[in-house]
Design a protein that fits this description.
This protein has ten helices and 14 strands. It is an alpha/beta fold. The chain has a single domain, classed as Metallo-beta-lactamase, Chain A, CATH 3.60.15. A seven-stranded mixed sheet has the order 6-5-4-3-2-1-14. A seven-stranded mixed sheet has the order 7-8-9-10-11-12-13, with helices on one face. α1 packs across α3. It is globular, with a radius of gyration of 17 Å. It starts with a strand and ends with a strand.
């Protein structure tokens, strides 16, 4: 099995990706309803029963709503989550779950892949991101794939893991002006902007510009708000990052696009 990374979607409406590495297929989050999740897998010629494990970042529906449908297709699937996240999800999943519990901040192994759980600031029980170390194969050097969405702000730990990522998925949720002009209630605007809400375009840019040394060559900006963000705004804002790091390829994942974004 050659290395492949497929972002099936990442937005405020749902988040899910597939990583194939070291002979293992991992799903990162399962945030789509069953029919869309299965249709997305079909687009990359993958069946649910071929997935070895799913990693869940937190209990919000846009990260785990498809778990029940996935388990109906693959009952023995290993589901990795920390204890609080598993506890919150258990009541909503109408299936037996093969829980594989980890402690936030620790590194654990899935079929030889080393996975580090990264504590993140968000208004969930015990939210995490993931960094997966992929072994070298077929002439490709080892790579670290890091999945970081739903960040109220960039902590020292988050900055550390961003700097170590070779392939990085990072949240750029909203444009400040568009959020101000939206018809959302003021309480929701405050939640989104809060230290346990979401990362704005400006915050994502400033996080990257603030790094002294970092090794990312593939950057995917995701978890975009359909209402309060636009690809053209983020893309223009990232020009300064491109000038600073000339070997970096930046892809903004369209929240309105159903087709997977793939890297081989």
């Amino acid at each position: 099995m050659a290395f492949a990374f497929h972002i099936l979607g990442t937005s405020s409406s749902g988040n899910c990706s597939i990583l194939e590495a070291g002979g293992t297929r991992l799903m990162l989050d399962a945030g789509f309803q069953g029919p869309r999740l299965m249709a997305s897998l079909e687009k990359i010629s993958l069946e649910a029963r071929a997935i070895d494990a799913v990693l869940i970042t937190h209990e919000h529906s846009d990260h785990c709503i498809g778990l029940g449908a996935l388990l109906r297709q693959n009952p023995l699937l290993k589901v990795f989550a920390n204890r609080e996240t598993a506890r919150r999800i258990k009541e909503s999943v109408k299936a037996d779950v093969n829980w594989q519990l980890f402690e936030t901040g620790t590194t654990f192994e899935v079929n030889g892949l080393q996975i580090t759980s990264i504590p993140i600031p968000h208004d969930a029980a015990d939210p995490v991101g993931f960094a997966i170390d992929c072994p070298p194969e077929e002439g490709r050097p080892s790579k670290r794939v890091t999945w970081l969405t739903d960040l109220g702000h960039a902590t020292t730990v988050v900055k550390h893991h961003v700097a170590l990522a070779d392939i990085l998925v990072l949240e750029a949720n909203y444009d400040d002006e568009m959020l101000d002009l939206s018809k959302r209630p003021q309480s929701l605007k405050q939640r989104i902007r809060g230290n346990f809400g979401h990362l704005s375009n400006t915050q994502a840019r400033d996080l990257l510009l603030g790094l002294k040394e970092w090794q990312t060559t593939e950057l995917y900006l995701g978890h975009l708000s359909k209402e309060c963000n636009r690809i053209i705004i983020i893309d223009e804002m990232m020009n300064e990052v491109r000038q600073r790091k000339t070997d970096l390829r930046i892809t903004v994942v369209d929240p309105l696009e159903d087709n997977p974004v793939s890297l081989w």
